[in-house]
Amino acid sequence: MLLNKDQIAERLSTTPDIARRVLSAHGVQPVDLGPGRGRGKRWYSSAVDAVIHRMHEEAQEKNPQKRRVHVGPHLVRGKTVKQLYAELTQVTPSQ
């Protein structure tokens, strides 16, 4: 199935001009059916879908899901944060 500029824009959720530029940047060129009503440039739907899929895969590679790492107790000189806080906030009698 061949898509016109409005249909590729709808598939890519953008404007026709940006959709054409994105497809061109990914090496997808339109077929020109010539001048006349209902003719003009058309893009093969599977090629448009392949570009969308490729863009999605590239985005996943750039932003891998961060794994949460369990962090044990933070020790400073062998003491936990709680122990250090208690030690540092002890009130000493002033003379």
Folded structure, characterized:
The chain has 95 residues and is of the alpha+beta class. It has a domain at 2-62. It contains four helices and five strands. It is rod-shaped. It starts with a strand and ends in a 7-residue tail after the last helix. The mean pLDDT is 85.
Q: Number of DSSP helices?
A: 4
* Rg: 30 Å
pLDDT < 50 runs, ≥5 residues? none
Describe the global form. rod-shaped
How is the largest sheet built, in terms of strand order? 1-3-2
SSE pattern, N- to C-terminal: EHHEEHEEH
* Class of secondary structure makeup: alpha+beta
Assembly level = single chain
Strand content: 5-15%
Q: How many angstroms separate the termini?
A: 91 Å
Mean pLDDT: 85
Count of β-strands: 5
Describe the main β-sheet briefly. Answer: 3 strands, antiparallel
Portion of residues in helices?
A: 40-55%
List the helices and strands and how they pair.
Blueprint: E1 2-3, H1 5-12, H2 16-25, E2 31-32, E3 41-44, H3 45-62, E4 75-76, E5 79-80, H4 81-88
Antiparallel strand pairs: 1-3, 2-3, 4-5
Helix pairs in contact: 1-2
Give short descriptive properties of this protein.
alpha+beta; three-stranded antiparallel sheet; rod-shaped; 5 strands
Q: Summed up, what is this model?
A:
By secondary structure, the chain is α+β, with helices and mostly antiparallel strands. It has helices at residues 5-12, 16-25, 45-62, 81-88; strands at 2-3, 31-32, 41-44, 75-76, 79-80.
